[in-house]
Design a protein that fits this description.
single chain, 512 residues, Beta-Lactamase, Helix Hairpins, 4 domains, five-stranded antiparallel beta sheet, 46% helix, 25% strand
Length: 512
C-alpha cells in the first residue's frame, strides 16, 4: 500500500522510521541555525548584550568583552547594571521599563569598564519577543563615542571662542577678496559682515600702511604665515592700529586657495609704547638737566674767581686813576666804575644760579614773597631778552611773608614765569604780569600772560606729570610746582585770562 494512503477516509500514519528521520533533520537544522546566529552575532564589532526581562545577562558578545573588559563567563546571569555607575542603576532600570513599554530606547550616557574607567556610549536597546509576540528579554548595542564626544566639545568650545574672541577673523581668496568675515572682524572696522564680502583687503588699510601690509602678504605667501602691525582703516575713515596674523590656506587637493586673517586692535598698546618712548626721552633730558645742575655749581665757582679778580683790578685801577684829574682821567674813572659794577652784577647772577640749582636742605624760614619774585624774574632775564617779552611786576605794598623753603619757592615762580614766556613767544603782544597780594591770612601770587591759552581738557591735565601742550616741553615744570606748593599747604590752579591767555596762580598761608 502506498504511503499516506487513505482507508475509508482515514489517513494512515507514516512509518516510525520516516517520522524519526524528519525530527532529526529539524533538530539538526535548529542547531545549524543557532550556530550560524552565534557566529553572526560574534562577528558584530559593536558591543552586543542580551538580557532577560529581569535584566540578567543572557548573551555577552565579543564586542562587549573588548569594550567592557569582562569575559562572558564573568557576567552571564548577573544584573546588567554593573556596567553603569552605582548611582545610575535606577536610571538603567527605568530605561528597561521604557523599552518594555515602547519597544526601544536610544541615547548617550556614561558606562563603566571592568577597570573602573568611564566612557561615553551611544546605546540602542530593543525589546525581544518570541514567535507569538510575547516579550522575552532585551538586546542592547553600545558604541564607544568618547573620542567623538570630546572632539565635538572641543570644536564647540573653539567655535564659541572664535565667536567671542577679541580677535577678528576673516578669510580671503587668492585675489585678496573677502570670502568669509566673522562679526567681530567686521565690527572692528565699522562694517556689517556682508558689506565686506567680495571687497579687496585694501579698503581696510590706510594708504600710508599699504606698503607694509603688502610686505606682510608677500611674507605669508613665502613662509606660510606671518605677523605684522600696521594701520587699519574703518568705514568712517578713522584709523586704529591693528596686529595681523596671516595664515596661508589650501583646498582639499592641497592647492593654495587664499589665506586666513586674524586681527587684533592694539591701539592702546601702541599708544602706550609711543608714550613710553616719549617719557624715556623726556627722562633722559631731565637726567641731562640734573647733571648740568650739578655742573653749574662747579662752573659758577670757577667763573666767580675771574669775576672777583676783575672787581679787584677795577678797585686798583680806580686808585691809580685818582692821580689824573683831567677830563680823560674822569672818563676813565667812570668806565672803571661801570666795569666794577658789572662784575659785581655778574657775581650776583652766578650767586642766584648756584642757589637755584643747589640741593635744598628743606629748611623753611620766613620769606618775603616780593623778594622771591624779583630774584626769580632776574634769573630769567636772558630768556626775557631773547623772546623780546616784557614783564611787569605788580607787587603788594603790604608785607607778604610766608614760611617756606626759599629755593623751592623760587623754583615755582621760575616755572610759572617761564611757562608764560613760552606761551607768548609766538604772539604779537608778548606781555607778562606777575602780581602778589594779601587777602586776609592768605598770600597769593599770579602770573598772567597774553598767550593762546589752553582748552578745557588741557587745563584739567595742566599740572599732571609729563603733560605738555608744547612740542618741546617736558611736562614736568607745573607738575613739580604743584608738588612743592601742596607740600607747603598751599593750592595752585589755572584760569582763563579775559581777552585771551592764561593766569597761573597759587596761594600760601601768611606767616605774619
Amino acid at each position: 500500500m502506498p504511503m499516506n494512503e487513505r482507508v475509508e477516509g482515514i489517513e494512515l500514519p507514516r512509518p516510525r522510521s520516516a517520522e524519526t528521520q524528519a525530527a532529526k533533520w529539524q533538530r539538526a537544522r535548529s542547531r545549524t541555525d543557532a550556530h550560524y546566529q552565534s557566529q553572526l552575532l560574534d562577528s558584530v564589532q559593536e558591543s552586543l548584550i542580551g538580557t532577560n526581562l529581569e535584566g540578567e545577562v543572557t548573551y555577552w558578545g565579543r564586542g562587549a568583552e573588548q569594550l567592557y573588559g569582562y569575559s562572558a563567563e564573568e557576567v552571564i546571569g548577573k544584573s546588567v547594571t554593573f556596567i553603569v555607575q552605582p548611582d545610575e542603576e535606577h536610571v538603567e532600570r527605568e530605561r528597561m521599563r521604557q523599552v518594555f513599554e515602547t519597544g526601544s530606547w536610544k541615547g548617550v550616557y556614561q558606562q563603566r569598564r571592568k577597570d573602573g574607567t568611564i566612557f561615553w556610549a551611544s546605546t540602542i536597546i530593543s525589546l525581544v519577543t518570541d514567535e507569538s509576540g510575547k516579550p522575552t528579554g532585551f538586546i542592547g548595542i553600545d558604541i564607544d563615542i568618547t573620542d567623538q564626544k570630546r572632539a565635538r566639545e572641543e570644536l564647540d568650545q573653539l567655535n564659541l571662542a572664535i565667536e567671542n574672541a577679541m580677535q577678528g577673523i576673516s578669510r580671503l581668496d587668492r585675489e585678496g577678496r573677502f570670502v568669509m568675515v566673522k562679526p567681530q572682524y567686521a565690527q572692528m572696522l565699522g562694517y556689517r559682515p556682508e558689506e565686506l564680502l567680495g571687497q579687496s583687503w585694501t579698503v581696510t588699510v590706510p594708504a600710508d600702511s599699504e606698503p607694509l601690509a603688502r610686505e606682510g602678504y608677500e611674507a605669508m605667501l613665502r613662509d606660510g604665515r606671518t605677523t605684522l602691525e600696521c594701520g587699519a582703516l574703518r568705514k568712517d575713515g578713522s584709523v586704529f592700529f591693528k596686529q595681523l596674523l596671516l595664515v596661508k590656506s589650501y583646498d582639499e587637493l592641497g592647492r593654495h586657495d587664499g589665506h586666513y586673517c586674524f586681527m587684533s586692535d592694539v591701539t592702546k598698546r601702541k599708544q602706550a609704547e609711543i608714550q613710553l618712548r616719549e617719557k624715556e626721552s623726556q627722562l633722559a633730558h631731565i637726567s641731562r638737566l640734573s647733571t648740568m645742575g650739578e655742573l653749574v655749581a662747579g662752573i659758577a665757582h670757577e667763573i666767580n674767581q675771574p669775576l672777583y679778580s676783575i672787581a679787584n683790578f677795577a678797585a686798583v685801577a680806580e686808585k691809580k686813576l685818582e692821580a689824573f684829574d683831567d677830563q680823560l682821567g674822569e672818563s676813565l674813572r667812570e668806565l672803571n666804575q661801570l666795569i666794577a659794577q658789572q662784575a659785581v652784577h655778574a657775581g650776583e647772577i652766578i650767586k642766584r644760579l648756584r642757589a637755584f640749582v643747589g640741593k635744598t636742605d628743606g629748611v623753611r624760614s620766613p620769606l618775603d614773597m616780593n623778594a622771591v619774585v624779583r630774584d626769580a624774574v632776574a634769573i630769567l632775564a636772558p630768556l626775557v631778552h631773547s623772546t623780546n617779552a616784557s614783564i611787569g611786576l605788580e607787587l603788594s605794598s603790604s608785607p607778604v611773608v610766608v614760611h617756606a623753603d626759599r629755593v623751592q619757592l623760587e623754583q615755582v615762580v621760575v616755572n610759572l614765569v617761564r611757562n608764560a614766556l613760552e606761551a607768548v613767544a609766538d604772539r604779537e603782544l608778548r606781555s607778562i604780569t606777575v602780581r602778589t597780594s594779601l587777602a586776609g591770612s592768605t598770600v597769593q601770587v599770579a602770573v598772567e600772560d597774553t598767550g593762546t591759552g589752553v582748552s578745557k581738557d588741557e587745563k584739567e591735565k595742566l599740572f599732571d606729570a609729563f603733560f605738555t601742550s608744547k612740542s618741546t616741553g617736558l611736562g614736568m615744570g607745573l607738575s613739580v610746582s604743584r608738588t612743592i606748593i601742596e607740600a607747603h599747604g598751599g593750592r595752585i590752579w589755572a584760569t582763563d585770562r579775559p581777552g585771551g591767555g592764561l593766569i597761573l596762580q597759587f596761594t600760601m598761608m601768611s606767616s605774619l
